[in-house]
Structures are given as structure tokens and as C-alpha cells.
Design goal:
Length: about 425
Amino acid sequence: MRYKIKYRWVVAVALFVAYSVQYLDRIKTNVLTPVMAVDLGLSTTDIGTGAFLMLLFYGPAQYVSGILTDRFGAKKILIFSVIAWSLMTAWMGLIQTREEYLFRMALFGALVGTEYVPSARILMRWFSRDGRARAQALLSWAWILTPAWGSIFATQLAVQSGDWRLVFFVTAAFGVLPLFLIVAFVFDRPEQYRKITPEELAYSYKDEIESGILTGRESGDLKGKILARRNFSFLDLFSSRSYIAVVFVDVAMQITFYGALVWIPLYLSDRFGFSLQTMGYWSALYFVAGATGSFASSYLSDKLFRGDRRIMVLASFIGLAPFIVLLSTVDAGSPLLLAAALCGMGFFANMAWGPFLSIPAEIFTPEVYGKAMGFVNGVAYTVAAFSSKIFASLVVVSGGVKDYSGGWLFVACCVLVGIVAAWFIQTGAAPDAGARK
């Protein structure tokens, strides 16, 4: 009997590819920062300010996009996001001054902070509890694997062409691909797909059927039927101790991730003297290891631990801390230790994505995932914005040499906060928040 691919995985792969293309902008901007800084006259402080502005506006955009997603549908928001991304990417290739760079980073954050929440919201509805972590892990590969190949692609194209601006023009044209995939293959809800099978529809609503919210024989407005039995206002979200813990966990995760994304390329360039081309390969180690960690933890969370998300989130933070310390102290003449630090940090830092991103849907319901996850990410990215400024201020210049150890120590302290917060996460058959009847 021939195996038939479930359409939910077609949706998941389409979202992964679409998000990967959009994530290219942040990757090539970061790895090309050393040459862009020379051309545009950017200081280390300017680079930190640029990351700060992007995240400062990206955070609120997450919350707004969550509300719009729940109200108007995820697909419409994703189409807007892709178009905005293409325009913003092309614009980066045209900037000439420091002021233009900073303004563009702020506007970029505001407009493209619309890509994650709609994508995750769609997956939460297409997948039940026993597959959500793996679906989210696949989506997380967009921001884990894209830096691996994107770093190499951007640096190679810039080196071969001798023009960093060309990289932005070329990748802006890539926006056609995610736009096509979203329009052709992505649906907000399983019942909107005309060829959906009864078995796959039942799988998507498995949790609601098992809890008695649905019988499995309904048709029509399934969203309305679910919300009639299980709905949450914005203030209801905060009656859950687990939800509050999720906010703090996300803060720690975003600070860690953007600490790696923004500062590892500069750290490798300044401390180890890597050329642009070599630095692209070394940066890729972190993200290749990250993809492995993300998949492994999500599989274990879904299958072995049967939806207990806290175990893998705790393992992620506990395993990450020593590798951050190792990265900050490794000598320039120890390539094996550097490789171990980058791989270990990448593996553990990205273990938590799949399990963690599933939690709001399981505390509450996928029908309010937009506003629930939108607020979580909004807070996390806003705090992460200030963390970029803090990291930059901790980089000490002595005798013309930059010392990044203070910045990495700050990231390690944030990881400890993540460990404490993760301990309070609880997901199970009976969420610890009350639903409005």
C-alpha cells in the first residue's frame, strides 16, 4: 500500500520554506555587518542600536499581528508580511548613510513582525497535541537552518561579486517563492481545504473531540463551536501560572538567540580574525547543531514525554549555560574548543523551540493562540531589544582589542532566569486557567 503524505505536513513544509526565505534578511544583514559597517561608517554602538530598533518595533508587531490573525485569519497576514519583507530587503541595498540604516531597521521590525505568529497559529490548528512540537520544530528550522546556509550564501555572493548590496537585491526577488506557497498551499483551517479527508480532519480536532468539546460529526463553523465552550479574554490568560512562566522563558530564549545571531559573527571576526568568507562557515556550525537539537527535543517531547513540555525546556537551558561560558573564554588558538562551543551552544539553545512554542495552545486552545503567543513574543522581543544595547555596552575595547566576555556573561545570567521560569511551566489534560463559559 502506497504511503500518502498527510496534507498537514504539506502545510508545515510550505510555511517552513516561506519563513526561511523571509528570515534571510536578518541573516545576511548580520553576517555582512563587518563590510556594511565600513561602507556606511557604522560603529559597534550603531550596530547595537540597529538591532535594538529592529527588535523594539518587532515586539509590538508580534502582539498586533496575533490579534489580527485571530480576527481576520493567518493567511491574509502572511501575504502582507511577504510583500513587506521583499520591499524592506530591496531597500537595504539602497541605503547610503547611518541614519537611513537605523530608520530602515526600525521600519523593518514593525512590518515583518507579522510572519511568525500567523505561521505558528496555522500549525496549532492543523496538528494535535501529539504532533505539535515536531511541527513547530520544523518551523523553527526556518530560523535555525537559514543562518547555516544563508550565512554561506550571503558571504560567498558578496565576496564573488565584490558588492554587499547585490545580496539584498537578489534575495528580495526570492519573495516570489513564499508568496506562491502561501497562496497555493496554505489554509488557515483544515476544513477550508476542499480535499481534506475525514481522518485528517478528525486528527486536527483530536484534542477537542477527546475532551468532549466536539463530537467529531460537526460541520460549519468549528471555530465558533469551540469558542462557545472554551474561550479566553486577554486578562484570562494571566490567570495561568504556566502562561506567566512562558513569558519569562521566551525572554531568556530570545536574548540567547539574538545574542548568537547578532554577535557571533562580529565576535568571530574581531576575536579570531576570520575573513568574511571563513566567518560564514564558522557561524554555520552553531545553526547546523541547532537544527539537530530542535528536532531531537521535539520528537522526545511529543513521543517519549507525551506532551510534557517542561522537561525539554529545562534541559535546553541547563545544557546551554556551560557552552556560553566556554565560548566567552576560548583562546584564538583553540579551533577545536571553538567548534565545540559553537556546536554545543547551538544544540542546546535551540532544543526548546518546538516544545516551548506549543505550550500556549495547550494551556488554552489553538483558537486564541494568536493573541496568547503574540503577547508572549511581544514582551520577549521588546526586552531582547534592550538586551542588544546592554550586550554592546559590555563589549570592552582595550588596546584596540574588543573583549566580548562581559556580553556573554550577561547572556549566561539570562539563561539562569530561564531555568527558574521553566520550572513553573505545567501542561496537561487540565490546564491551570479557567475558561470563560
